[in-house]
Amino acid sequence: MPPSAPKEPSHPKSHAQKERSIKTPKQNQGHKRLYGRAQGRPLSARQTRLVSELLPKISLPSPDLPAASPMRGLPDNKPLWLEIGFGGAEHLLHQARRHNDAHIIGIEPFLNGVAKALAGIEDDDLRNISLYHGDARPIMEAMPAACLSKIFVLFPDPWPKPRHFKRRILSEEFIALIYHLLKPGGEFRFASDIISYVDWTLERVDRFHDEHGDGFIWEPDSARDWQDPPQGWPGTRYEAKAFREGRTCHYFEFFKPA
Hints:
alpha/beta; 9 helices
């Protein structure tokens, strides 16, 4: 069982352990499910239409298809950003509206979240979003190295019980995969309201080093760097729920060396 978490996350060097290299995971060899139910309340008529008509037009190809590449159809003249588990799509849609110069990929296993993203895409006629309904890992494992400029993992399921820690998405292997996919100078943004998950992630980010001995850069000037949301942060429903229930949210921006 992990040690008790501090009231506020400290610099990851306080958790430093023996450095070790973590290799990028081999391509999909079968994954344990990391999420709960795949659908909640029934979809509305409009949402059902969007899933059947719009989603196939903007969806990444399934990695199960022969010779399928998740990069097929993506623009090669724009930075590619990826949000993993976008929930209600507030952040995904906000970024797409603000950054027409980037193309944003959203992956979400919960169909109701995908339907909300589709509604926002249709409402605002957004042309710079691609979606995938399902597990992010097979898609990411099929992507080429250094293809993404930003990766967002915001308020992931914390799986708070120790016996469920193995289901947390931010494992050593997944953090290695994030690093592998980021371009030099690329950003990995993480947010959570669960302090044990914050410490869990900081320990693994700090511990990660690639085969060259390089790892993520995180150099906060003060506690405000992780207590305040990034500039232009839109807020999300999970964040709002955390505030209502009296939990503090934490925000981190890690960078791959340029």
